[in-house]
Fold this sequence. Notes:
Family (chain B): Belongs to the class-I fumarase family.
Oligomer: heterodimer
Number of domains of chain B: 1
Largest sheet of chain A: 5 strands, mixed
Strand content of chain A: 15-25%
CATH topology of chain B: fumarase
Distance between the termini of chain A: 25 Å
Family (chain A): Belongs to the class-I fumarase family.
Enzyme class (chain B): lyase
Pfam families (chain B): Fumerase_C (PF05683)
Structural class of chain B: alpha/beta
Largest sheet of chain B: 5 strands, mixed, barrel
Domain Fe-S hydro-lyase tartrate dehydratase beta-type catalytic (chain B): 9-182
Amino acid sequence: MTIGYDIIRETARTLYDQALKRIPENSKAALEKALETESSPSARTTLEFMIKSARRAEEKATYVCSDAGFPVYFVKIGTNARFEGDIKSAFVDAFDELVRTIEPPILKFVTNPLTGERSYHGKDMPHITWDFVSDDDCIDITCSPKALGSGRWAALEIFSYPKLEEIERYILDVSIRAGSQHCPPVVIGVGIGGSFDHAAKMAKLQTLRPFGTLNPEPILAAMEERLTRAVNKTGFGPMGTGGDTTALGVHIDYASGHGFTPVAVCFNCWINRRTRARINNDGEVAYLE
Amino acid sequence: MSEYILDLPVSRDLARSLKLGDTVFLRGDAVITAGYPTHQRLMDCVEQDRPPPVSMDGGAFFHLGCMSREEKGALRPLYVNPTTSTRFNAFMPRIIEHFGLTFVGGKGGLDDACVAAMKKTGCVYLSILGGGAPLLTEGIEAICETGWNDLIVQFRLSRVRLDMFGPLTVAIDAHGNSVYADLSADAKARLPDIMRALARDRSIQM
């Protein structure tokens, strides 16, 4: 059995469609949990409005946020997966099909950075990151549409032999610079070490990690816990109008590298758009998020 | 903190009476756009002292994107959502003063120069929930007119009729107070304490 072009295209299209119209279950749970501890009455009202908005979008099969962003996919390919057809084209064609068929229609957000021209299409669309998984026989696809609201505030700096204190200070500085503007409460993804590009990729992948999952590295698990507490002491709160809940979580990964240490920090807004599916060699699709 | 249902346009006195943290629902006409090129064109209008295609004098101007569909000769609003206002910081002081706006809004606030222009003019910034599209859209009754229709739909200058649009939060008042400036200043002031707490937690956890 093989994984065909058609099933990949249909799955990629469905993942993008669903990512715009609902928020992950663990994000909803994190917002509900934040309500239990949030002490500011206006921040509580905003959190309640967010949860209500998410529910209404699901009921009406419409968008939580009107900014569809641009499509970003993370694809993990099992080394025993078998394909039929051009799987790269399946993702490109899925985006074309989505633009043609989605209801309500999405706005034009794909932007040419040189001319400012907006379209439904553009160079290197969609953004796809490919990876391999040993001894697996499926393709695992995560869709995470990226928009301006939180996308604009990511940052990366390269340090030489930084102490943990210096790294943590940088994460806080980037968070304070984003302030009220990245549609908090956010998830903060951090990548430490490796190379320039790898640090950024780690940070991004950490924004995709579900809330409530424990970092397998004890040193990072402790760092995540104290940094979440620290970011929430800044006081920006839901939608940045004040409160205890600025971040629902700080997720960190690291990689060994050289004496220079890149630290990348990026954000996903409170909607935390993310959908995920696996397609087995027999063509069966399981939607995981 | 109070809750108000307000009919647009509001008087300058009413705008000046609103306080940080007040909640507002709006009825009546407002002008919206989410476009950077639209702001450039508005600045051209300001500099050349000619009117934009949709009148903005003394009114409400929001950084809102809107998707619509033409049905039976009219535009039906499908959904709206705010965009980040600070992207337009460079344009907003002159736009606020020139058109004598009483309400501006979007998400993320505006900078100090805008706050100063708002104080001078008697204008309030209303924070609109990013990601509130399904609920906010229920407060859009109609799209009355659009200008600069050569632009993509969310960039056009559009006059919309609101009916209980909200809830919106007064985040910058007409007296120079801004929750965004206050929260940023507070966070920066708190940073040494936060760093001390991190150092303490680090020593316990490691």
